[in-house]
Structures are given as structure tokens and as C-alpha cells.
């Protein structure tokens, strides 16, 4: 059911429809989708819709507007899939799913250390407040604080240029050589690979520290010194 | 000049949102501003009680939105301050009776007639909260100097930032200077250390507020 001005593709899923949008301005895509819907109201009526917006950066207003417009037409928007972390976060805020379950090949639990060198890092230049959850398949660098109630889950290392008071899981896919470092390491909980360490006491005079799994297999922190 | 729309919210319940709205509204009205307060806590309305207008409610915000009355009919004028109005919440409905776009429409109609629109947000971060911040030009976050209230305020500020409402301004309510001095209560510095937002006021604990209500 491709239209000549194909800004979008529609596919049937087991339990609804998947609409994939091409790269075009959001306004155009929205109009294209609604035109498509209005053209075949019977087909869309009562549908569960998942929307793949590719790398489109969408804010709350954009999605709320679309969700309202769709629901006026009897369509339930339940998921927004995106490559953009902003859009994903927006969708999560609105209680929309950001993943549709497709059978995926089982990923290997072991993470080869050599591969880490090629991994990318996610740089976050802001404070992560309670309720924020960052999941990333590489390293994560935060220039700001990680507040209690915020979570970072990274396959690689995690470095916080600020106060770490939330939860961080480094080497989440099983890399026991991953490290977590912060200018003030006072987390709720730290995890590296399968090791878990609970709340360290807040420091009187915090110094930069690094946490890693030591030779005895315990998660331990020490001063973070140059070199 | 069109009204400034200010939403007062907190995440956690019982920190003093409604009391703050009532006091701000009275203070602004005493200064000669035209003020309307909206109780956003549909299903658990309180602002009418604090303002002492409970027995005058005929129509409420849901009646306006569902077209059972005109906006003017739901606005209750204060007994002492003729420039202060309340739009009460519905007590027999829930938050889903109103949507953010309903709020935007309602407030658009109020903007030209008032200097300030104050919205009392319900606790939580669900629909009622989303409704309350939908039309806000400015958001004030109220917290108490205790860990759970500050944690919830942090969460709310995070949501405000991602909804592009700015980080909001902070009021620390019910601070007890003696407890702070003895290190038995978080100080305003402890709170600001975590929240890192603009502090616009500290309200000390005062039992007179409880007696007054």
C-alpha cells in the first residue's frame, strides 16, 4: 500500500501496524500519515499503531499532538521507535513503548575486552536527575552529577565528571575489566559485570575515585590518580 | 498584558502546594493584581477548602470543559478580595476527564482577563500533573527539607526540563531552623546542592498554618 509520495511505509505486525517514516521534516510526515489514515478510515479504525521515526528528534508536544490526532481517529499509538535518544526519552515520558518485540538473535553475554577500544562513548553534558535511565552499548561520560534515582547502564566504562549519587552499572554485558570513576563516588549502588556493591558512605571531603573489580574478584574503589 | 500562567507542583504529596497557591494568590490580589487560581487536583480537590469557598461551588472545571456551563459561571469570587477568583476541581471525576489540550484551551480564554493564572498541580507525575503544566509559562516546585520530597522534586524538575518548561523555581517549605542547626534536618544548602535550581523562597515551619486551616 505504498503511496506515490511515499514518506511512509505501512506494515502489518502480529498485533497491529508498524508505520516507518522516511527522513523528511516532521510536519510533512505528520500530514502524510494523517492523510493516509483519513484516506482509508475503515482500514485504520481501532488499529494499534507503532511508529518508527528513524533519527527524527521529537519533543513531547510533537508526540502528544500526534497521539491526540490519532486517537481522535480511533487509532491507538502505543510505541515509538527511534534512533534518537531524545525521541526515545520523550516516548518513555509519555508512557509509550520504545521497542516492539521482534525475535532477535541471542546476543553473546561475553564482551571481548579488545572490542572496547573500538566502542563509541556517549557524552552527556548535563546532570542526570532522578528517574533518568541511560542505557548505552559503549562507554558513558557525564559532565554533571548523577542524582539519586538516576541510572546508567553501559556495556563499557562509566566516567562521571561530577557527583555520582545514583546507580551505575558498567560492563553490563559481563566485561569485568570495566571501571566506574567519579569526582565524588557516593553512589546508591555500583555494579560492574555481575558484581554489586551497595551504598558507599558519603565522603566528608570527596576525592576522585575509581571503582573496579580487584584481583580477588571484589568490587572495590580507590583514589583516582593520574597515570 | 496577557496573564502569566504559573503552575505550582512538587511530585510528592503533602508538601504544601495548595497552601502555597492560596497564599501566593492572596498576596498577589492584595497587591492589586487580578488573579485566578485553578485547582488541578480533580477527584481530590482542596484549594476551595483552604480558600474557604467550598460552599459556593456550583460548577467546576470539568463542567466548563464538557460544555455544561460557561467559564465565567465556574469562577468563584473570593469573599474579601474582589479580584481573586477560583476555578474549582470536580470532586466526583478523575484526572482523565481533562486533557492537556483542554487545559491549553481553557487557559487561553483566561489569559486576556487576568494578570496571573495560578494552577495547583496534583501530586504525582501522571495525567493530572501533565494537565497542570501544559499551559504553564513558569513552574514553581515546592519541596520540604526531607530526602523523599527532594528526590521527587528532582524527578519533577527532570520532567520539566525534558518538556521544555525550564527547570522551574524552588520553594523550600516547612524548614525548621532548630532541627537544621542540630543537623537533624536537611539545610537549604543540602537541598540546593542536589537540585541545583533557582531558589525563590524558604518558608519556615509554623504551626499557625495548621491551626489556620
**Runs of chain A with pLDDT <50, length 5+?**
102-116
Number of helices of chain B: 10
Number of helices of chain A: 5
Element order of chain A: H for helix, E for strand? EEHHEHEHHEEEEEEEEEEE
| Backbone CA Rg of chain B | 17 Å
**CATH 4th-level superfamily of chain B:** P-loop containing nucleotide triphosphate hydrolases
Note the gap between the termini of chain A: 60 Å
CATH architecture of chain B: 3-Layer(aba) Sandwich
Strand order of the largest sheet of chain B: 3-4-2-5-1-6-7-8
User: Which CATH class of chain B?
Assistant: Alpha Beta
Major sheet characteristics of chain B: 8 strands, mixed
Keywords:
heterodimer; A: about 230 residues; alpha/beta; Transcription Regulator spoIIAA; Pectate Lyase C-like; 6-stranded mixed sheet; 5-stranded mixed sheet; 15 strands; elongated; B: about 210 residues; Rossmann fold; 8-stranded mixed sheet; 10 helices; about 20% strand; globular
Summarize the structure.
Helices cover 19% and strands 33% of the residues of chain A. With 227 residues, chain A is of the alpha/beta class. Chain A starts with 7 loop residues before the first strand and ends with a strand.
